[in-house]
Design goal:
Elements: E1 8-12, E2 22-23, E3 28-35, E4 38-39, E5 44-50, E6 54-56, E7 63-65, E8 67-69, E9 74-75, E10 80-81, H1 95-98, H2 111-116, E11 134-136, E12 141-142, E13 147-148, E14 153-154, E15 159-160, E16 165-166, E17 174-177, E18 182-186, H3 190-199, H4 218-230, E19 241-247, E20 250-255
Helix pairs in contact: 3-4
The chain binds coenzyme A.
């Protein structure tokens, strides 16, 4: 586990932050805040947050923009999550008209773009005036090749079928598929979903109980953890959290003072 207090680690961009519980940080753009462990496998994450045990499948580039991944989220390859929208009712929908150099520094290195684009002192960028955060719930599972529109909330435990186009919020534990994505069915009965959402098992450290349950058995496992919670045996999962930024080809990691989710209340 990481050290207490703030920690600054400077590494070559090609190296992994394994000691800090991160695998595959080479695709980080802007910044990433994460709880350990996070397995992001080189996919492109721009200004995202990732809860503990976030898992990206390998072999294909997923791009995520300002997406908040819950704990145990599972992301298929080749997906595009929360990309920016262009204003379609402006004189031009092209970035020169609505973005700002700080958001697209690369493009404004090109002199001709800089000549046409806004000055730094121009007002707020379009992206600052519309919802731009996208949320993937705890234990949500996004199938390969999916598109999730910016601003959408995928509920806890929900599933997005492969190659789906998600344009609206998805309720917890729903399975959606298609373009546009529609509910195919629920993962479990209403009463089981209700109990799962009440338990919120992702808040706790399940590791001590891994040999005491059979994860194939939904109701028995749920009842077991409900009992453990009732008798105070479940301990909160309070993983170390970090903020990683890319600067001049290096990844700089800094330890945060609290987990991203369910931080324990400070003792007074
Ligand atoms: C959505 C999914 C989870 C549903 O699996 P399932 O419960 O076994 O569902 P079924 O195959 O019984 O299909 C149920 C219905 O949804 C449709 N459906 C399933 N997946 C679909 C998809 N991705 N897009 C559109 N429709 C889909 C089926 O055609 C079927 O329609 P019907 O009732 O009209 O015949 C699965 O099909 C899927 O897409 N998995 C993603 C796999 C993946 O991307 N893995 C990456 C791992 S990181």
């Amino acid at each position: 586990m990481g050290n207490e207090g703030n920690l600054a680690v400077t590494l070559d961009s090609g190296r992994e932050l394994i000691d800090e519980g991160l695998f595959g940080g080479t695709g980080i753009a802007g910044s990433l805040q994460y709880e350990r462990p996070a397995y992001i496998y080189g996919h492109r994450l721009k200004d995202c947050t990732a809860g503990a045990f976030t898992y990206f499948n390998a072999a294909g580039q997923t791009s995520a923009y300002r997406v908040h991944f819950g704990r145990y989220s599972q992301i298929g390859e080749g997906s595009v999550l929360g990309p920016p929208e262009h204003p379609m009712d402006w004189f031009s929908s092209h970035p020169f008209a609505f973005t700002r150099p700080k958001y697209m520094p690369n493009i404004y290195q090109l002199e001709d773009f800089a000549r046409l684009g806004p000055d730094e002192k121009a007002g707020p960028s379009y992206v600052d005036t519309v919802p731009h955060e996208t949320f993937i719930g705890h234990e949500a599972y996004i199938g390969a090749g999916s598109f999730v529109k910016r601003g959408v909330r995928i509920g806890d435990g929900a599933v997005v079928g492969a190659c789906s186009v998600v344009t609206k919020d998805v309720p917890p534990y729903a399975i959606v598929a298609g373009s546009p994505a529609r509910i195919v069915r629920m993962r479990f009965s209403e009463s089981i979903v209700e109990r799962l959402l009440k338990l919120q098992w992702w808040r706790y450290d399940l590791a001590p109980f891994k040999n005491a349950v059979d994860f194939q058995q939904v109701e028995a496992t749920l009842a077991f953890f409900e009992e453990q919670l009732a008798c105070g045996a479940l301990q909160p999962l309070q993983p170390p959290a970090y903020r990683v930024v890319r600067r001049q080809g290096m990844l700089i990691a800094e330890r945060l003072s609290r987990p991203l989710h369910f931080a324990a209340a400070a003792k007074v």
